[in-house]
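Hi there, hope your week has been kind to you so far. For a while now I've been wondering how a particular protein folds. I'm sending you its amino acid sequence along with the C-alpha cells. Could you read through the record and tell me how the C-alpha cells relate to the sequence? Take your time with it, there's no hurry, and the full record follows here.
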Amino acid sequence: MMVPFQRLEKMIPADQALANKALQASLEQIKNVVSLQLTELAATVTAIETNDGLGLIVGLQQAVPDSVRTAISSTVATGTGANGTLVLGDVLGCASGYNITAQMTDTVAVINTMTTTNLQNIYEVMANTANEDYGDYDLTITIPIGEPGYGTYANIDVAFSNLVALAASNISTLVSTYPTQTTQLNSNFRTIANTVASQQASINGNTASGIDYGNLQANLQSVIPSFVDSLHDYGLQIATGEANDYLTAVANVSNQTGQAIVACLREGRNLELLNNSGVGVNSDIPAT
C-alpha cells in the first residue's frame, strides 16, 4: 500500500519520507512495476547492462543524429508515404491511377482547348502507314493526295522520316501558339513519366518493394482466402496510397465482387470504431 507523504512524515523523519516518496515516483515510471515482487525487481535491476565503453552512444545529444537519419532516408525513404516511406501506391499505383489520374484528366482538358486537327491528321497517316494501308513495308509507299505528307516514297522508313518532320514542325507551331497550355501539358506529362518510372524502379528493385516478380506463382489459390481474410486490416490502412486507397480504386464496383471488397474494407473500419468505443461486436458467420 502506498502511504501519502503527509502520513509518512509523521512516522519517519521528513527528509527520509521525502526521499522515500521520490524513490516511489521514480519506480512508478517503470511499466508494470506494481505487479512485481521486490525480489524480482531487484534481480532485474541487478542484471541490467549499461552502455559502458560505448562513448559515442552515451554522448548522443538526440535519439537519432541527423547524419544517421540522412543515411537511412537515402536508402529506405523512397516513397510518397509518411517520412518518405514506401506505400502500395508507389509500387502498383499506376493500375489505380494513383498520382496520375488528375494529370491525365487535365491533359485531355487542356488539349481540347487547342486546335490540333493538323497534328491529329499527321498521326492518323502515320498509323495508316504502319498498318500498310499505303503499301507494303519493304515496297513503295504512296500516301494519297490530300493527306499530310502525300507523295510516293521508296519505303516506309523514308515515308516516316518525312511524316516525323511534318509532326515536329506542327508541334513547334502549337508550342508558339499555345505557350500556357504547352507549359501545363509538359508539367502533366513530366509528373506521369516520373511516377511510372519511379514505380518501375520499385517493382524492379526487389529490395524496395519486397516482391520477387520473377518468381510469382500463377493461379496460386491459397492467396485468395488469405487476401479475403486481410480485407478488414487493409481497410484500416487509410493513408494516401496505402491498401485501402488502392483496393477501393481498382475494385470493379459494377459487379458484386468489387462491391463486396469495398464493403469489407468499410466493415473493418466500422469494427475498429465500435471496439474502440466499447461496443461489443460479433461478425462471425454462424455455422448453420
